[in-house]
Amino acid sequence: MTVRSAAIVGRGVLLGGVALLSVSCRPQPTPEPEPGGAEPDVRIGLHVDVTDVHITGDGSIAGSEREHVVIRVGGGEPLTVRQDGYGIVVSGGSASGRYERLTFVSLDPGRHVRVEGRPYRGIVEVFSSGSGLVVVNVLPLEAYLGGVVNAEMGRRAPDEEAALEAQAIVSRTYALRNLGKFASRGFDLRASVADQAYLGVESETEPGLVAVRTTGGRVLTYGGELIAPFYHSTCGGWTAAPEEAFRTVRSRSYLRPVSDRHGDGWYCDRSPRFGWTVEWDGPALLRILRNTVPASLGIDPAMVDAVRDVRVRRRGPSKRVAELRVTVGAGDIPVSGPDVRHVLQTPEGRVLGSTAVELEVARRDGVVAALVARGHGWGHGVGMCQWGAVGRARAGQDARKILETYFPGARVARWY
């Protein structure tokens, strides 16, 4: 049975009796909806290949296996679930036992199942992949978006509501386009920025929920099909072409670079990451490149014997670095744009904020003694600039205008 038939409509699980706990124990692939179809359920991988997980409830919860209730606990009684081969073992309080997989639901209207203390709407499934536990939250797509919009955009002021609406439309498009992405693992999407940040009920805000309701069922399309809706934190002045950021994403007309210019400034210049500086001394740079060059490019670490120069060889359409050259004892090592952020990691070991950078090199005795990167923006730079959307909303643009600017030629359309 689907989540919706268990009366989960974004407000918790409304169960008339234990018989309504019947839920298929095996993951079912989510069919891709057609324009004008029904809202689908989504399966979100909350924790993947972990050794154990803690399950509680705001009130009473029940766990079922093979459509039969096998666990019932109340009053926030905690359960610990551990992997046991291809099965799971539950311990804690009055519940214990070994099972193939379990589906947990709240028995109290308006309350939720908690995973590691965090509350989630819908139902929670736990099973073993053989290499660890997999915890999946199953819920209607619109309820999922309520936990995404503010997790991605943060809390926004009243004059920034259009930015939340734009995020809701982009996130809905992303979810629909990627249904079944991890079907072989038993879920559709991960709950992290590897797909979209999703924090369940605790990240919901009234403005975010209003943005989801206001844009209900609306997506971005091009030629009648869902677009590839890339987005990022801060473009720094221009969004990027796909080839500047990714190896495997083909160029599309609706993903071409877009200016974020606004009068004498930029729509995204209110971002705390609009401009930034990173500095390396010679030994730190050598240490980092000895790790990142082999990892990213497959080059023998012994080749990185000294760093004699680091320079920009070529820039892309948005003026981001399209090719970097690292000069070592044996000659030049070319680093393409999609690899730059991973190769030129910060002294703390984080990827570089963006490839919209200018480099300053100081040399001593034929090697780099210091390197300074002065950059703009944060993230890959493709598609919608989230801080730019905030700036555009404050300037009076609505969600449609924001999205049709960042995705030229795409249109906002109702999908269901």
Q: What is shown here, in short?
A:
Helices cover 19% and strands 32% of the residues. It is α+β, with helices and mostly antiparallel strands and 416 residues long.
Low-confidence stretches: 4-30
How many DSSP H or I helices?
A: 9
- Rounded mean pLDDT score: 91
Numbering strands along the chain, what is their spatial order in the largest sheet?
4-3-8-11-12-1-13
- Relative helix content: 10-25%
Radius of gyration over C-alpha positions, nearest whole angstrom: 24 Å
User: Sheet with the most strands?
Assistant: 7 strands, mixed
Principal-axes geometry comes out as globular
- How many separate domains? 3
Count the beta strands. 26
Q: Structural class of the secondary elements?
A: alpha+beta
Q: For the terminal residues, how far apart are their CA atoms?
A: 21 Å
Beta-strand residue fraction = 25-35%
Quickly list its features.
six-stranded antiparallel beta sheet; 9 helices; seven-stranded mixed beta sheet; 3 domains; 26 strands; 32% strand; alpha+beta
